[in-house]
Amino acid sequence: MLYKPERIYVDSQVLNLQFCTNILHKYADVEQIIIDSPDEIPELSDADFSITRGKRVLYLKRYQGSAFKLCPGFSLDVLCCNYYVIDLIENCPLECAYCILQAFLNKPFIIFHLNVEEIIEQTLSTIERNPSQPFRVGTGEHSDSLALDHIFQVNPYLVETFSALPNAMLELKTKTDLIEPLRGLNHKGRTAVAWSLNPHEIIEQIELKTAPLEKRLQASACLVSEGYKVAFHFDPLIYYPNWRTGYAQTIEMMFDYVSPRHIAWISLGTLRYIPILKQIAEERFPHISIFCNEFIAASDGKMRYLKKIRKELLQTVSGLIRKGGPGIPLYLCMEKHSVWDDMMTVHPANAEALEKYLKSNV
Ligand code: SF4
User: Fold this and answer.
1) Sign of CA dihedral 300, 306, 308, 313
2) In the chain, where are the structural domains located?
3) Which CATH class is domain 65-90+132-361?
4) pLDDT tens across 43-98, in order?
5) Contact call for residues 73 and 334 (beta carbons, < 8 A)
């Protein structure tokens, strides 16, 4: 079901912007409260105000500072893929039990940054000043890229902006099948739409409010027919009793729907979490068992499966993908060089080499 807010807070600074006018017009039947400062929002001083209730509130505001930046996962310790993010939306209407945002966002609302033109100017200025540098840019760092576009309506604008940039590629990541706004656009091959995949039993249990596996794959096939490149993310991989069969069936279905030549890249990553997330998620979703496994604290403070489990998951899933699509660039998200050595057949030496490898199927 499409997300609809129950209340909208509007920062007076964005009232005159076209994106704001459109949203307020569309939701004229929803309570709209204009404020000059977040201090005027009573929910922010209510200790009992929950994450679940926060998701029903939309807050329209400006982004202060630069919303275009290198992916926050960047670190010298890990093999980074030089990914950039545009911070247009914070928080998400979907409910993945493992979602890091539950432990991370200090305002529980869904926030839109409506000074889009200013944000795009910042983005273009960096990309155009560095014409020999390739950029991969995503909007799904703090939300799902498609789940809210029936309200924001920013994706067509982004797709058309990127269609004119020879050295950049936009990636829209999703777990939905909400592709209507992307159809019929003149994307010129500069946008890849990426689906995060998991076996259907995992989706049913812990990726609540998302589209079923088959619907995600139908949507990806539909955008292939519109000339888009698509990508897939097997992240987080979950270790559960039926995982071998579950991932084998999921990968088989993926290749039934989309031919390897249309797949720009695939990433892999196993479940990882900061310790506080376990407590928050288990309170919100008492039925889940994903944290009942053998985890160890890694040097970045995150809990990860024991190495033998991670190795089994990554080697099995990457092997199945390689078998169906040997030419698809396959990469690990935010992993150390030693993990690449242990678990992958390809190991780019640095971020530039990884970037080049990821472009090889585009
Ligand atoms: S889709 Fe992504 S941002 Fe949304 S709840 Fe799931 S993990 Fe979080």
Assistant:
1) negative
2) 65-90+132-361
3) alpha beta
4) 988 888 899 999 999 999 999 988 899 887 656 677 777 799 999 999 999 999 99
5) yes
CA distance 325 to 213: 19
CA dist., res. 329 & res. 354, Å (int): 9
Identity at 168, one-letter amino acid code: A
Using alpha carbons, select from 54, 70, 61 the residue that is nearest to residue 35: 61
Backbone phi and psi for residue 335, each to the nearest 5 degrees, phi listed first: -120, 155
- Global pTM reads 0.94
Verify cis geometry, omega within 30 degrees of 0, for the bond prior to 199: no
Return the residue whose CA atom lies nearest to atom 8 of ligand 1: 99
Judged by DSSP in three states, 340 sits in helix
The pLDDT value given to residue 27 = 97
Report in angstroms the alpha-carbon separations of 114 from 18, 65, 278.
Answer: 9, 13, 33
In testing the pocket of ligand 1, which one of 52, 87, 94, 98 has its CB within 8 Å of the most ligand atoms?
94
Classify 346 as helix, strand or coil. coil
Pocket test for ligand 1, best of 91, 144, 233, 267 (most atoms within 8 A of CB): 144
